[in-house]
Amino acid sequence: MRVKSIVDTRKLVKGQIYDAVGLINDPKNPPRSSWIAETIFISKGYNVERFNANHFVLESGAPIPKTNISLPDEYKALEFGDIKIGDILVYKSENLKSLIKGGKYIVEDKKKKGYSGSVKFKGVKRWLYFNSWKFRLASKSEIREDSLLQILEGKKSGVIEKEPDSRIDSTGDKKNKNLIEFLSKSIINSNRHGMDVIDWTIKKEAKNWKLKREDYDKIIDLPLREVLKMIDEYGG
Predict the structure, then answer these.
(1) With 97 labelled, which of 20, 54, 104, 147 sits at a CA distance of 20 to 30 A?
(2) Domain spanning 80-153: which CATH class is it, in words?
(3) Of the given ranges (128-142, 154-168, 178-192, 193-207), which has the lowest mean pLDDT?
């Protein structure tokens, strides 16, 4: 369902069209928790964000229907019990030093504890506590596309099967986009304590990535037009 925002907020642009993948808006069949009533779920790539349904109309301008639409399975929180050995999970967070945001990992083993449990990924040395909102199951289309790229273009698999010597190199085609993203955070920070932008990026903004100044050698002289194209291409 395509919807149009009728408000300007930090996350919404008035008049912009968005893809809605779920809706809780039926007053005759309200949710158990009143705080999620009149809620619309907007797709952001493989993730979903929740907004007030009253901030939208349909693309045609008609009101949002008074009904409930369940979220598709791929947008629901991944439960520990749903995971099987051999599944490929995508890490969505940035909190763990041993995993890379957006990285794909193969489940090698799992141990249940209480309502959740721990997961052992192939190539990752330690067991990790499973958080349902920090992982998602890789979609069939992602796995298929990855296989085609290996066969047709000779690219390496997007699945990470060993802890990389360089975290930034393991991000593949998104390496330069990530480097620019880290750098941009330093550029707008006026409290760099006399350090230049790249040094601050390495030591503060991306300290868990263990970057080196040489990582920026290939992009430091790129024209702004190419930088913006790179950001747009990978959804920055």
Answers:
(1) 147
(2) mainly beta
(3) 154-168
